[in-house]
What does this fold into?
Amino acid sequence: MAGSTHRRAVITGGAGFVGSTLARRMHADGWHVVVVDNLCTGSAYNIADLVQQERFEFVQANVSEGLDISGSVDAVLHFASPASPPEYLALPIETMKVGSIGTFNALELARANGATFLMASTSEIYGDPEVHPQIESYWGNVNTIGPRSVYDEAKRFSEAATMAWHRTHGVDTRIIRIFNTYGPGMQVADGRVVPNFICQALRGEALTIYGDGSQTRSFCFVEDLVSGILAVLEHGDAQPYNLGNPVEFTIGQFAELVTELVGGQAVVYQPLPEDDPKRRQPNIDRAKRELGWQPEVDVAAGLVPTIAYFRERLGL
Ligand SMILES: NC(=O)c1ccc[n+]([C@@H]2O[C@H](COP(=O)([O-])OP(=O)(O)OC[C@H]3O[C@@H](n4cnc5c(N)ncnc54)[C@H](O)[C@@H]3O)[C@@H](O)[C@H]2O)c1
It folds into this structure.
């Protein structure tokens, strides 16, 4: 990169849903983007438009086994991790490795380059919250030995590692706690509620609701999230930021919205999975106050391109 005026970012997990949307936006903003991904839950499809471009590199590698990137790096954005419950439950040890060894490797890359480091944490670090909406100062309520703990604790550990590198080595770090996000780029078989409902509705199947549908979620459109990530990267500090859309829906209401947009379908009820949080809603006051960021896209508007994307992926 000698002589280049473009800032260079390494995005781990950049072939995933959020990472690829972030890679595309940073590339459009003039960054040189290096995506490192082993494609365990992501897809080359997500970055097919980027691989032919200048200022873009794709390295297929497992970041838990090392992160050897030559040339200068200005920002390391650590998004590699299985993220949907069915996927991290199927990859429990890989999830813990990428949240521990993978995070160490990404932090070391940032330290060696004097780069800013941003870690993609999650609302799951709040567990089944006793405080509602969740604010960054809440420490959470996680079952350390439940099946979901492989993900929740890996992310909590990643946050601890990020703060340790910040305090010990003076690395310029950021932590974002992402709440449920949806949009084009999600995998059809992802297992989270948005792709489940949309793909079931598009196939003319009944929508599966786990529990009685009264549990709440908030849904942030991915382009809004990416704007928040970049605001934190450029203007944030080392303390965590919640990023998400505070507008709360019950799962039952969300099923109704999807059926309105795609066409009327029935719903079937299944038992609630173990440790499934009953309520989840971000308090985003800090990002709003300090960065002037808040989501702009309402759920119905964000569902339109998302449904179009899934229609194409399903070949309908
Ligand atoms: N989407 C959300 O709603 C949400 C919510 C909270 C947190 N997050 C976090 O954001 C990040 C991205 O989530 P996503 O929804 O895009 O998931 P995703 O599964 O689409 O993307 C994750 C990417 O990481 C890659 N990856 C996993 N382990 C790897 C490893 N060891 N080495 C290299 N690459 C590896 C996968 O192949 C995939 O491309 C994750 O860290 C996730 O925990 C996402």
